[in-house]
Recover the amino acids of this structure.
C-alpha cells in the first residue's frame, strides 16, 4: 500500500510533461494524416489541393467580412455543443439537437410575432422562447426515458424526424408559422421576416459584422465551465454521470437531475435556434423561419461536442474550426472542385481529432492495469 | 536470505522448476524487489507472503514477463532464460491466474477459455477440454454457462481452467482468495492440491492471508519492502510468527483477540452506555429499527422476507450468514437503493422512506458498501471530491464549491485517516483498494452518522489494514454510533460484535449475545435446514 503511492509521486511531474508532448504529437500526426487524405482526394477527383485550401481560407477568414460570417456560424455551433456537454456529463446521450434546435426556432418564430414589447426585450424573449421550445422537445425524450424506460439515444434521434414533420405542419398555416400571402409573395414555406428592431444587433468590428450570438455563446461557455466545476449542481451532475448508484445514495435523484440535464441540453439547442433566427442574417434564413432552417447546425454542434469530449472550453476553438469549414466551403466551388468536399474534410477531421484520445485511452487502460497489479 | 536453495519442507527434487537469483527491480526511487532469491520445486506449493506493496506481485510479473528486472537471473529447468514477454513465459510453461479476473461477462465459459487462442476455433474440442480439466482437478463447470451469471468462485475457476488449458508446468496464483467466500477458498485449495499432486507442477501462491499460507503452502517465503526477510515451513511455524515477519512488529491477530477474550463481548456495550434505553435488544429506543421489511428482486423473488432488526447506540451488531441470504439487499436498503414492498425503516423513531434518493444518508445512516466501486466511490473523480459527494456543504461558500476549502478539508482528512495518495486532486482510481476503502470510511464517519453499516469492510485488506479498520469501527462504537457489521468472516464478527444476528433467506434466523456465540452454534444457525 505505502510503496505503491510513493512510487508514483516523484515521477508524476515528468510524466505530465511527457504526456502533453505525446498528446500534441498525436494530434499533429492525425490531423496531418487527415489533411493528406483530403488532399489526395481532391487530386484524385481532378482538382488541385492548393487552390482548394486557399479557397477554404478565403471563404472562412481571409476575405473581407468572412470573419464575421464564420463567427456567426460558430456561435450556434458552440451553443449546441455546450448543451450536449451537459447531458453527457449526466451520463445521457442526447443526439437529437437538430430537432430540438428546429423546434426551438419554430417556437421562437411563433411567439416573435405575438409579443409586442420594445425591441431589446423582444430579442431576449425570442431567445428565451427558443430555449423553452428546445427544452420542451428534449423533455419529451426525458419523459419517455424516466416514466417509460425508452432509451434516450433512440428517442432523441427519432424525435428529430418528428420535429421536422411537426414544424412542416406549422408551416402550412398562417395562424401558426406561415407568413401571410402578401408578405411571402410567390415563396412557399417561409415565415414572416422579423421586424428590424427585433433582431440581435450585429456590431461591426474591423469591417466584420457579426451577431451577438458569439458573445452569448462565450459567456455561457464560461458560466457552464464554472457551473460544472465549482457548483454543487455540477458536482452532483458529474456524480450521476459517473456512478448513478453512488449518486442515488448521496441524494441525487436520477429523475430530477436526468430530466433537468436533458432539458437543459435541449434548451441550449433551442437557444441556438432562436439565436439563428434573431441574429443569423444571411447564413440562416435571413431572419425568416423556413423549412430546413436548422441546416445541420444541430448535427455539426453534436460533432463539436464529440470532439471536445465533454470539455466546455475546448468546444470554443473546435466550434470555430468547424464553422470555418462550413463558411469556407462556399468558396471552394469556384475552384471547380465540388464544394461538398468540405463535408469529407470535416468527417476526416472529426476522425483525426478522435484518434488521439482513443489511442491515449487504450494506453491508459493498459498502464492502469499494469499499475493496479504492480501495486498489490 | 542468501541461501539459493529452499529450506523446503518435502524432498527437493534435483533440478528446481524455477530458480530466481538476485532479482532487483526499481521503479524510479522506489525499490520494488531487491536481491530476491527464490526457488520453486515441482510438486510443491511455494507460498509468498507479504503485505500489500511488499513486492510480491512485481516479482511474479517478472517471472511471467510483464516486468523486466533490472538485475538478477531467472533459471527455468536448469537453463538461464530471459523472459522479456509473456509469450516467452508461456512457451516456457509458466502460467498465471490473476487476482483481477480478465473475463468477458457477456460470453460463455468456453468462449472465454478459447479467447486469445490462435488458429481456427473448434468449440467442441474446447468444451471437451474444459470438461476434461474439470474432472481431472475437481474444477467442474458448465462450459455453456454465461460468465456474467457465475459467482466469483466459479469465475475464478474459469480463470484457472484458462491457465491450465495451456498445460503450464509452473502456475502462479496471485491473491486467489481475495474475492472468494470462505467455502469457495476451501474448494480452491483442494483443487490446487490436485494440480500440484497430479503432474508434479510447481505452484507459486501469492497471498497476504496467514491461515491460507499455513494450510496450503509447503514452504513460505516472506517478503517485506522488496526483500525476502524470512523463510518458514508451515509445520514449524504459526500465524503469530508469520505475522511478525511480515509486518516487522507484533500484531494482535483477530483470532487471538477473540480467543483471549480481549474483545470484551457484551461488556463494551455496557461500559459506554449513556442512556438506559440503549441497552440490549429489549430497549425501548433503538437508533435504527427495520420492521418486517419485504422486498423483491428483479426476478420477483423475495430478497428480503420480513426482516426485523434493531440497532442501539454504542453497540456493534454482527450480521452473519451465508452470502446471498439478504446481506446485499439489506446494504442496498440502507443506502437508499432499494424500495420496500412492505415494512418500515425508522431512525430514532422517525420513519425513513425506503428507496428515496439520499433519504437514508440524510437520516444519519452511513454505509461502507460491500463493493465500494458499486456505490461507494466515483473512480473518475478526485479524492477530494469523493470525500464530499454525500455532503458538499462542508466546503461551499454561498452554494459554490470553494476549491481552497475543498483542498484543505481533503488534506486534513487524508492526514487524519492516513490515506496514501498523490494529494487531494489525485484521481480516485490511482489509489489502492485499501486506501479507497479509507476514503469511504473517512467520508462516512465525517457525517457523524447515528448508524454505520459496514459491509465486508475488511475484504481484500492485509492484516495491518484490517487492524486499522477494526480499531476505527470500535472507536466509532465507543463514540455512540450504532454499527451494523455485515461480514462473511465469522472471526471478524466474533471479534467485533456485541450482539450477533444470523440472516437466512432474507430474514433473521437467530440472535445471540457475543458471550453465547461460538463458531459452532453460529454455523448451525447459518446452515439451518428450514427458513
Amino acid at each position: 500500500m505505502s510503496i505503491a503511492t510513493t512510487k508514483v509521486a516523484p515521477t508524476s511531474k515528468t510524466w505530465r510533461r511527457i504526456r502533453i508532448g505525446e498528446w500534441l504529437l498525436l494530434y499533429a500526426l492525425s490531423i496531418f494524416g487527415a489533411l493528406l487524405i483530403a488532399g489526395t482526394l481532391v487530386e484524385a477527383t481532378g482538382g488541385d489541393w492548393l487552390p482548394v485550401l486557399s479557397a477554404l481560407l478565403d471563404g472562412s477568414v481571409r476575405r473581407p467580412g468572412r470573419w464575421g460570417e464564420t463567427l456567426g456560424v460558430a456561435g450556434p455551433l458552440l451553443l449546441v455543443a455546450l448543451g450536449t456537454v451537459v447531458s453527457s456529463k449526466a451520463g445521457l446521450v442526447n443526439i437529437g439537437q437538430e430537432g430540438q434546435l428546429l423546434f426551438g426556432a419554430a417556437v421562437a418564430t411563433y411567439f416573435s410575432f405575438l409579443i409586442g414589447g420594445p425591441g431589446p426585450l423582444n430579442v431576449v424573449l425570442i431567445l428565451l422562447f427558443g430555449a423553452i421550445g428546445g427544452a420542451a422537445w428534449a423533455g419529451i425524450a426525458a419523459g419517455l426515458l424516466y416514466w417509460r424506460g425508452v432509451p434516450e439515444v433512440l428517442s432523441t434521434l427519432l424525435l428529430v424526424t418528428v420535429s421536422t414533420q411537426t414544424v412542416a405542419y406549422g408551416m402550412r398555416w398562417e395562424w401558426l408559422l406561415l407568413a401571410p400571402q402578401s408578405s411571402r409573395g410567390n415563396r412557399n414555406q417561409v415565415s414572416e421576416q422579423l421586424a428590424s428592431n427585433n433582431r440581435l444587433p450585429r456590431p461591426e468590428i474591423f469591417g466584420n459584422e457579426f451577431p451577438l450570438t458569439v458573445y452569448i455563446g462565450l459567456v455561457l461557455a464560461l458560466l457552464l465551465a464554472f457551473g460544472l466545476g465549482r457548483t454543487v449542481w455540477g458536482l452532483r451532475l458529474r456524480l450521476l454521470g459517473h456512478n448513478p448508484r453512488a449518486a442515488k445514495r448521496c441524494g441525487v435523484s436520477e429523475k430530477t437531475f436526468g430530466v433537468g440535464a436533458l432539458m437543459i441540453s435541449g434548451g441550449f439547442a433551442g437557444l441556438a435556434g432562436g439565436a439563428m433566427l434573431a441574429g443569423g442574417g444571411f447564413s440562416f434564413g435571413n431572419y425568416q423561419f423556413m423549412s430546413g432552417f436548422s441546416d445541420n447546425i444541430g448535427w455539426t454542434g453534436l460533432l463539436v461536442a464529440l470532439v471536445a469530449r465533454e470539455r466546455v472550453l475546448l468546444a470554443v476553438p473546435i466550434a470555430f474550426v468547424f464553422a470555418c469549414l462550413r463558411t469556407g466551403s462556399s468558396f471552394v466551388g469556384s475552384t471547380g472542385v465540388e464544394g461538398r468536399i468540405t463535408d469529407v474534410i470535416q468527417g476526416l477531421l472529426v476522425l483525426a481529432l478522435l484518434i488521439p484520445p482513443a489511442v491515449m485511452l487504450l494506453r491508459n487502460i493498459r498502464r492502469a492495469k499494469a499499475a493496479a497489479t504492480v501495486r498489490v | 536470505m542468501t541461501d539459493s536453495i529452499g529450506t523446503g519442507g518435502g524432498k527437493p527434487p534435483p533440478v528446481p522448476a524455477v530458480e530466481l537469483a538476485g532479482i532487483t527491480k526499481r521503479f524510479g526511487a522506489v525499490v520494488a524487489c531487491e536481491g530476491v532469491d527464490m526457488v520453486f520445486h515441482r510438486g510443491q506449493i511455494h507460498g509468498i507472503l507479504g503485505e500489500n506493496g511488499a513486492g510480491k506481485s512485481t516479482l511474479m510479473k517478472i517471472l511471467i514477463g510483464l516486468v523486466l528486472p533490472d538485475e538478477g537471473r531467472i533459471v527455468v529447468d536448469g537453463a538461464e532464460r530471459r523472459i522479456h514477454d509473456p509469450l516467452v513465459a508461456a512457451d516456457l510453461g509458466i502460467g498465471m491466474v490473476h487476482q483481477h479476473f480478465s473475463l468477458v461477462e457477456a460470453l460463455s465459459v468456453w468462449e472465454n477459455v478459447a479467447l486469445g487462442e490462435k488458429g481456427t476455433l473448434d468449440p467442441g474440442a474446447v468444451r471437451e477440454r474444459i470438461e476434461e480439466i474439470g474432472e481431472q482437478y475437481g474444477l467442474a463447470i458448465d462450459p455453456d454457462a454465461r460468465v456474467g451469471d457465475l459467482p466469483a468462485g466459479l469465475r475464478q475457476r474459469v480463470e484457472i481452467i484458462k491457465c491450465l488449458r495451456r498445460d503450464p508446468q509452473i502456475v502462479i496464483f496471485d491473491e486467489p482468495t481475495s474475492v472468494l467466500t470462505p467455502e469457495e477458498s476451501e474448494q480452491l485449495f483442494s483443487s490446487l492440491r490436485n494440480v500440484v499432486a497430479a503432474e508434479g507442477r510447481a505452484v507459486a501462491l501469492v497471498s497476504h492471508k496467514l491461515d491460507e499460507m499455513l494450510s496450503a503452502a509447503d514452504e513460505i517465503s516472506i517478503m517485506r519492502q522488496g526483500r525476502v526477510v524470512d523463510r518458514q515451513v508451515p509445520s514449524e511455524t504459526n500465524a503469530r510468527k508469520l505475522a511478525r515477519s511480515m509486518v516487522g512488529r507484533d500484531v494482535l491477530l483477530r483470532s487471538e483477540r477473540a480467543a483471549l477474550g480481549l474483545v470484551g463481548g457484551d461488556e463494551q456495550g455496557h461500559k459506554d452506555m449513556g442512556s438506559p434505553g440503549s441497552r440490549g435488544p429489549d430497549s425501548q429506543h433503538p437508533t435504527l429499527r427495520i420492521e418486517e421489511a419485504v422486498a423483491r428482486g428483479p426476478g420477483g423473488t423475495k430478497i428480503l422476507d420480513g426482516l426485523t432488526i434493531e440497532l442501539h447506540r454504542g453497540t456493534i451488531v454482527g450480521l452473519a450468514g451465508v452470502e446471498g441470504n439478504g446481506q446485499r439487499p439489506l446494504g442496498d436498503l440502507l443506502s437508499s437503493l432499494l424500495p420496500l414492498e412492505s415494512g418500515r425503516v425508522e431512525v430514532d423513531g422517525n420513519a425513513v422512506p425506503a428507496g428515496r434518493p439520499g433519504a437514508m444518508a440524510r437520516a444519519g445512516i452511513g454505509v461502507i458498501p460491500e463493493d465500494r466501486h458499486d456505490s461507494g466511490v466515483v473512480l473518475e473523480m478526485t479524492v477530494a471530491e469523493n470525500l464530499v459527494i454525500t455532503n458538499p456543504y462542508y466546503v461551499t461558500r454561498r452554494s459554490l464549491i470553494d476549491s481552497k476549502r475543498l483542498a484543505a478539508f481533503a488534506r486534513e482528512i487524508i492526514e487524519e485517516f492516513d490515506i496514501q495518495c498523490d494529494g487531494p486532486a489525485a484521481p480516485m482510481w490511482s489509489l489502492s483498494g485499501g486506501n479507497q476503502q479509507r476514503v469511504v470510511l473517512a467520508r462516512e464517519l465525517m457525517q457523524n452518522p447515528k448508524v454505520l453499516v459496514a459491509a465486508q469492510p475488511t475484504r481484500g485488506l492485509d492484516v495491518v489494514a484490517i487492524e486499522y479498520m477494526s480499531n476505527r469501527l470500535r472507536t466509532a462504537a465507543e463514540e455512540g454510533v450504532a454499527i451494523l457489521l455485515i461480514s462473511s468472516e465469522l472471526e471478524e464478527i466474533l471479534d467485533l460484535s456485541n450482539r450477533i444476528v444470523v440472516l437466512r433467506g432474507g430474514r433473521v434466523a437467530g440472535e445471540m449475545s457475543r458471550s453465547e456465540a461460538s463458531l459452532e452454534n453460529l454455523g448451525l444457525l447459518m446452515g439451518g435446514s428450514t427458513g
Observations:
- The first strand of chain B starts at residue 18 and ends at 27.
- Confidence is low (pLDDT under 50) at residues 1-10, 261-283 of chain B.
